[in-house]
Design brief:
The structure holds two protein chains of two kinds. Chain A is mostly helical. The radius of gyration of chain A is 24 Å and the shape is globular. In chain A, about 40% of the residues are buried. By secondary structure, chain B is mainly alpha-helical. Classes of the chains: A mainly alpha, B mainly alpha.
């Protein structure tokens, strides 16, 4: 098991290194002057030489590219993501550490909802079949096809503006206003959980159907165990391993979807920060957020891999 | 002759009313997209402030107008053009790039395998929208940025599929035979291997089109995809939000069209899967 963990950890670190290298290359491998491209002035000639010089020195663009690359890696190892273009005295990391918990709260609330609703729905569809299956399958197909910002917008229109059940958006801190905090969490979390919940339900359904067809299920039944007991004790448990993998991959997708849902509900998380930074072409902030999200994504997949090894010893080999 | 009739029978069996509805919807969108310059509808960019926020069914504006008095029907139809151009472009780039990577990785040696498949892993290590936003920050938004970026983002699914298929078939006798007969590796790949691994790749095409529309409309919703005033469905949802209490159809219409199109491409994917690649069935019973 220790070997398995170490191997996975090593692979994760290599992948992270490749990821930050790609982010570095995204800016530096392009033809032309990166500083001019960032200032949006390719050919326009409207940018002052001072601005160009400032961007160059702030990003270290005046040094040889290999030096820039090693500097970049060394700073990342020390968790130094540079400073914002807009206010040079604030480190990017402090922006992110302020916003990250708010985004993670949304992501975990949505993932929790998806598991609590998606797994029972999927198991129900597989167990009962017929009309229930068709109904649930239609629902999940719709859930996968609806963009998260469309769901969010409909929620705002119906539940906030028309019925006034929840605030249309914003954020309240847990300490100052606990009720308001959760009132503002409900709609974005449910909207966010639709897609992932549908994927989880579908995966559970097909996994349960596959497990039910196994020989050992027939054996258990022929030994006189009641159908319900076989289903609850054995089938469900043996069906959940692929669901865990799917869930891990989908949480990565959720990190992307929060960008949209935070915009709909003006939730002050990392997604809102990212959009502000993209609009202001504040490259250090964008780069920092992209690296943090990719690192989180890799970390989640690592945890899923390890969990998979615990749940299914065959995967360790 | 016999194989043709079997294939036709399988196509017929893969169809049902819902899937037919999806296929017809796609056909309708494509035809309207091609015919839209010939239709007698207002210019999608023409502003008419005196007639802003007209409801559905207003004279001259069948689906009403937005806050600038621009015709909603016209914007939806011209928006469909942009959606299809971006989705088709991105899918084409993803297909060519992905199949090339998969072929090289599967057919050439271990080094090519490491290079191509690790590249794929790296692309998959980002949530697509986040990587897209990084590229938009550097190159600015616009249709060509969208096509190239999404093409790269969606290439892994084709690369992995092709790679998996190539590895399975490359030691089969007919491939070895093609080599023995003196065909070059390139010719063997394109003429012998590719046709035999194409079914699951074709099944992926409508699904990639659906994912492209999903991502493109999201970026446009954020104002970072298609550049205004060019009509795009995602942009229309964002614009309509400001007036949705007075006129919910401004949000409902583009939303409904986006969902219907994504749904329809998914159904088309189901048809193709059951028709061309029946072994992979059972994922959905719709």
């Amino acid at each position: 098991m220790a070997r398995f963990v170490l191997k996975r950890l090593g692979l994760g670190i290599v992948l992270l290194w490749l990821v930050v290298t790609v982010v570095f290359l995204a800016l530096h491998a392009v033809p032309g002057d990166p500083a001019a491209i960032l200032l949006g002035s390719e050919g326009a000639g409207s940018v002052t030489p001072e601005a160009l010089a400032r961007v160059r020195s702030q990003l270290g663009l005046d040094k040889p590219i290999l030096v820039q690359y090693t500097d970049y890696l060394l700073r990342l190892v020390r968790f130094d993501l540079g400073t914002s273009f807009r206010s040079t005295d604030v480190p990017v990391l402090s922006y992110i550490s302020d916003r990250l918990p708010k985004t993670l709260e949304l992501v975990f609330a949505a993932a929790l909802l998806a598991v609590m609703v998606g797994i029972p729905l999927g198991a129900l569809a597989a167990r009962i079949g017929g009309l229930v299956d068709t109904l649930i399958s239609s629902l999940t197909t719709l859930g996968i096809s609806m963009p998260v910002y469309v769901i969010g917008t409909i929620f705002v229109l119906v539940f906030s503006l028309q019925w006034g059940m929840f605030p249309a958006g914003g954020y309240a801190t847990l300490e100052a206003n606990p009720v308001g905090h959760f009132q503002r969490l409900v709609l974005p979390a449910i909207a966010l959980s639709f897609g992932i919940g549908s994927v989880v339900a579908r995966m559970t359904r097909s996994s349960v159907l596959e497990t039910v067809a196994q020989d050992w299920v027939r054996t258990a039944r022929s030994q006189g165990l009641p159908r319900a007991q076989v289903f609850r004790r054995h089938v469900i448990r043996n069906s959940l391993t692929p669901v865990v993998t799917t869930l891990g991959l989908e949480i990565g997708t959720l990190l992307g979807s929060t960008v949209l849902i935070e915009r709909v509900f003006t939730w002050p998380g990392m997604g809102s920060l990212l959009i502000d930074a993209v609009n202001a072409r504040d490259y250090p902030v964008v780069q920092g957020i992209v690296i943090v999200i990719a690192a989180l994504f890799i970390l989640i997949n690592l945890i899923v891999d390890l969990l998979y090894g615990v749940l299914d010893p065959r995967a360790r080999q | 002759m016999k194989t043709t009739s079997r294939s036709v029978r399988r196509l017929r069996r893969s169809l049902n009313p819902i899937r037919m509805g999806g296929a017809i919807f796609i056909l309708l969108i494509v035809v309207l997209t091609l015919a839209v310059p010939l239709l007698a509808i207002p210019d999608p960019l023409a502003q008419d402030i005196a007639n802003s926020l007209q409801p559905i069914g207003s004279p001259g504006h069948v689906l009403g107008t937005d806050r600038f008095g621009r015709d909603m029907l016209s914007r939806l139809l011209f928006g469909a053009r942009i959606e299809l151009v971006v989705a088709l472009g991105a899918t084409a780039v993803a297909l060519v790039l992905g199949v090339t990577l998969g072929m090289l990785g599967g057919f050439l040696g271990a080094l090519a395998e490491t290079l191509t498949m690790r590249t794929v892993d790296v692309i998959l290590a980002f949530p697509p929208i986040v990587l897209a936003l990084l590229i938009v920050t550097i190159y600015g938004p616009g249709v060509s940025t969208l096509i190239i970026t999404m093409g790269i983002l969606f290439s892994p699914r084709f690369a992995r599929l092709t790679y998996g298929q190539v590895v399975t078939v490359k030691h089969l006798e007919y491939v070895e035979a093609a080599r023995v007969f003196g065909n070059s590796p390139l010719r063997t790949m394109l003429a012998v291997v590719l046709p035999n691994v194409s079914a699951p790749i074709i099944v992926q095409l409508p699904l990639t089109l659906a994912t492209s529309i999903l991502l493109e409309s999201g970026l446009s919703y954020l104002g970072l995809g298609v550049v205004p005033p060019t009509p795009s469905w995602g942009l229309m949802v964002a614009d309509g939000q400001r007036d949705m209490i007075a006129n919910p159809s401004l949000v409902a219409l583009p939303s409904a069209v986006i969902v219907a199109t994504i749904l329809a491409f998914g159904l088309l994917g189901d048809i193709l899967r059951d028709w061309l690649d029946p072994r992979r069935g059972m994922a959905s019973n719709l």
